[in-house]
Write a structure and sequence with these properties.
4 helices; 74% helix
Amino acid sequence: MEDTKRRLLWNGMFLFLLGLLTGLVEQKFNNPRMGLAAHLEGVMNGTFLVALGAAWAEVRLSSRLKTAAYWSALYGTYANWAVTTLAAIFGTAAMSPITSDGHSAQQWQEGIVTFGFMSVGPIIVACSILVLWGLRRNAVS
């Protein structure tokens, strides 16, 4: 249990650092506005993992559900940062019309980014539901 908490904390700080480093180069991306979004995704998702790690001992789920929550949190946070960074590099527009004003990318690039964003959404929502379920007052592991 303690090892999982430490891994969440480590990954959170690592993702936070990736977000900070992304912010240092956001003006170099094909779409700097999406680069700013990638910077923020790294910082916010890293902070989420640190917070989850701090609360991990309070999450009361079966071993299987807790494992699912752990891996979905890692996938959701890292993939969110990575896909947003790819969108900034490619300059995609399909999934982010507000931040991509005047940008467009090749169809295969749009497809990769669309698939990435479409996979992240349900997984991070499922993770949040699992964690909330494990934090309810009468939760029993």
